[in-house]
């Protein structure tokens, strides 16, 4: 019988110390050797600053700068604070539906009335009747829409044709003419 003992592996060695920093040595630029066509470039230490040129005519910056800018500013300039954008326009008022005549809204005056034609069939048959319509009138007083609320079939077309030609005075609300709805009763009676 053979017994073997296995020991755990040893811990890893610590990481190596960072290398010491050696200050970099800067090389001084050597004068470039050129052919006779190109001027030699001087090292930075030999460049002299150009003397400032002051022009009495040009006060407040360079050509193309911001009016009133400073000398030596950025071409095209930068405005420190731009004016705030204009406020958005108010939203358009939503179109209102026609107002119903009645209550505090006074019924408009009927300016032009066209009498309906009595249908020949109703005259021969000695029939009378009443047609009730709902009229939608525009801002100028013209009838723009009609709906039959109570029908008398023989008289409906004659009533619709007549009321379409009627004109009303406009209804004014808040100083503006408004569309309105009203109920119209058209009676058909035979003369005795």
Q: Count of helical segments?
A: 2
The biggest beta sheet, please? Answer: 4 strands, mixed
As a whole number of angstroms, the C-alpha radius of gyration is 49 Å
What is the H/E order?
EEHEEHEEEE
Q: What share of residues is helical?
A: under 10%
**Mean pLDDT over the full residue set:** 78
| Cα-to-Cα separation, first versus last residue | 143 Å
Question: How would you write the strand order of the largest sheet?
Answer: 1-8-3-4
**Strand percentage, roughly?**
15-25%
Q: Report the uncertain regions.
A: none
Shape: elongated
> Count of DSSP E strands?
8
List the helices and strands and how they pair.
Blueprint (H helix, E strand, L loop, with lengths): L98 E2 L9 E3 L7 H6 L3 E9 L5 E8 L5 H8 L3 E2 L2 E3 L2 E3 L1 E9 L4
Parallel strand pairs: 1-8
Antiparallel strand pairs: 2-5, 3-4, 3-8, 6-7
Question: What do you see in this structure?
Answer:
- Strands 1-8-3-4 form a four-stranded mixed sheet.
- It has helices spanning 120-125, 156-163; strands at residues 99-100, 110-112, 129-137, 143-150, 167-168, 171-173, 176-178, 180-188.
- With 192 residues, the protein is mostly beta strands.
- It has two helices and eight strands, in the order E-E-H-E-E-H-E-E-E-E.
- Strand 3 (129-137) and strand 4 (143-150) form a beta hairpin.
């Amino acid at each position: 019988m053979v017994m073997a003992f296995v020991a755990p592996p040893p811990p890893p060695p610590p990481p190596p110390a960072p290398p010491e920093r050696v200050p970099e040595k800067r090389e001084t630029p050597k004068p470039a050797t050129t052919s006779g066509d190109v001027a030699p470039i001087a090292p930075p230490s030999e460049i002299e600053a150009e003397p400032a040129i002051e022009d009495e005519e040009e006060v407040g910056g360079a050509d193309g700068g911001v009016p009133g800018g400073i000398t030596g500013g950025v071409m095209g300039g930068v405005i420190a604070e731009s004016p705030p954008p204009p406020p958005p326009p108010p939203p358009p008022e939503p179109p209102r539906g026609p107002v119903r005549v009645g209550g505090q809204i006074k019924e408009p005056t009927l300016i032009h009335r066209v009498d309906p034609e009595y249908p020949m069939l109703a005259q021969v048959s000695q029939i009378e009747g009443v047609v009730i319509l709902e009229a939608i009138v525009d801002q100028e007083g013209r009838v723009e829409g009609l709906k039959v609320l109570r029908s008398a079939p023989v008289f409906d077309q004659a009533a619709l044709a007549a009321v379409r030609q009627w004109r009303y005075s406009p209804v004014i609300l808040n100083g503006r003419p408004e569309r309105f709805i009203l109920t119209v009763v058209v009676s058909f009676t035979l003369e005795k």
